[in-house]
Amino acid sequence: MTPRFRSPRLRPLLLTTTLTMTLTLALAATGCGTEPAPGSQTAADRSYSADPAPDRAELEARASAAQLVAEHVWVTEAAGYALARQSVGVLGDDGFGSVYTEPDGGQIRLSVERLPHADADCTDGPASGSAQEPLVTCERDGEQWYRATESGHAYAREQDGLVVTLSGPRQEVDRATLRAAARAAHRADDYELDRVLPPAGEAAGRQPVERGDLPPEGDGAPNNEVGASG
């Protein structure tokens, strides 16, 4: 009987094919474990995931040293604008103020204060501006109120007993930019507080922001109309 011999080329070919398939599957499995799915993280997650969570007690201490209430610190964003850290300070008794600037000199002021309801909308109170510069526009725009004089304009809304206002000169900040900043404004979370508040040890003896809009005579009531500085 003639002996049968199995072709020596079949086994190496089969082994090579098997190894190739095994390696391909292993690489695919490894890739699934290391590459995040597109859109699986929010912008905030991507920004903060590498940073340790700030210590809340330390944040409260830094806020207190700057004469601020941490819960009253708000932040916003607008294309081309960045927070001027030196502008951060207290308004009134427990309010908050800051200024966002852009390279061409534009400024957006953010203020958070305890003000009468009439300062947030046009439904009551003096809606005619000031004697020097009357209002030319006072209207509802979404969830906020828009006021404008010839030179300045502002968006305001009332939330949790506070009036949050975004304002700026009309020649420097157009309405669309101001609206975007107003809509983006929100109470600062711990990570944002860490970036906004003065570093520990640098806020001792910090003086409140000078409003600059107090009349030299009378009862000293602040002027909260659009265009007032502070």
TrEMBL record:
Sorted UniProt keywords: Signal
Regions crossing the membrane: none
UniProt name for this protein: Membrane lipoprotein
Chain segments carrying region Disordered: 32-55, 184-230
Coiled coil, from the record: none
Basic and acidic residues bias locations: 186-195
Organism lineage string: Bacteria, Bacillati, Actinomycetota, Actinomycetes, Kitasatosporales
Domain of life: Bacteria
Secretion signal, residue range per the UniProt entry: 1-28
Keyword tRNA processing in record: no
